[in-house]
Amino acid sequence: MPAEFHPRTKVTTESIFSRMSRLALQHGAINLGQGFPSNPPPGFLLEAARRALGRVDQYTPPPGLPALREALAEDLGVTPEQVIVTAGATEALSSLADSLYGEGDEVVMLEPYFDAYLPQTLMVGAKPVLVPMRLQPTDSGSPGGGWELDLEALEAAITPRSKVLLLNSPYNPTGSVFSREELEAIVALARRHDLWVISDEVYDELYFGAPPTPLRTLAPERVFTVGSAGKRLEATGWRIGWIVTPPGLAPEVAGMRQWSSFCSAAPLQAAVAEALPLARAEGFYAELRESYGRRKDLLAQGLRGMGLEVFEPQGTYFLTVRMPEIGAEVLVQEARVAIIPGSAFYASSPPPQGLYRFAFCKTADDIEQALERLERFLRVRG
Ligand code: GLN
Fold first, then answer.
1. Which 3 state secondary structure label does DSSP give 85?
2. pTM here?
3. Which of 199, 235, 269, 350 would you label with 279, given CA atoms 20 to 30 Å apart?
């Protein structure tokens, strides 16, 4: 009998995003599933990377290239000592899992949840505790596009084993952006129960209304922020993410992080270090918001035109729609449009019927063509 895999491998099946991208390729479908831009990153980032190759090619210190830690500190209003550069936000989250919780601990998070949160919690032996968002009809006037944070349910889910509150705002997949009042209430709750907070803010520059409040500004002593150059600079495959720790708490997290990938790709760190101040000075994020805003409206109008219920996002590049319950696999094969089934973001409560997440970080052409294909498919199907 050969040796067996550790039971933890059971939690690492193919992610819904990889699966839908694979099926999209297989069926020649337009991919509005996995959230990655279809355009190349901005020229100023690519040029900085070209200059860095052959110049910054060896290991950087595990917490990150000093120039990038400084650029991030400047951009985020923290000190360089609080910043740890990681191989994407996914590694930022797993380093925090390694550092903050384990066997016997509970991690309280919201449902629908971003897919990585569950396996990352289970892999360190902790228990995910999911608190459903309330889903109201879109005409209820709810600012979260239909989803509402249930603070009472959140507090009720906390037990003496709870160690961490894991939040995501702007929120993938709902597109909600928590208001300052909601964040203040969350912080009060974290303080009352002495919880760490992991605030996944990878879409921090992608909002369509008022700018989101960084949670660390409300509770600097207990909030770990996760960020992503991939999202900000449209280079999701570069795998440059970061953690901002509370003051004085970086060395332990950096210590854990060095044993996963040791350091992130050095020339790409150098490029991001150069690009961050440029992006800010040249209004790149404002342009990004405008351009995504246009594509969001294009998609939302098209879907509404088909009589579908659209949950208008306040941030991120995702939009949820309620459609007849067809199945994402049928859609990718027959309509040749890849989208993510809402049920993929639910594990504890029954998923609301007929929800699908569309990514609109794709070209206007792709969006228009996907709308046509979907319209035709739904019409023929009746
Ligand atoms: N964040 C992206 C999404 O939600 C993709 C994540 C991934 O594939 N790791 O679509």
1. strand
2. 0.96
3. 199
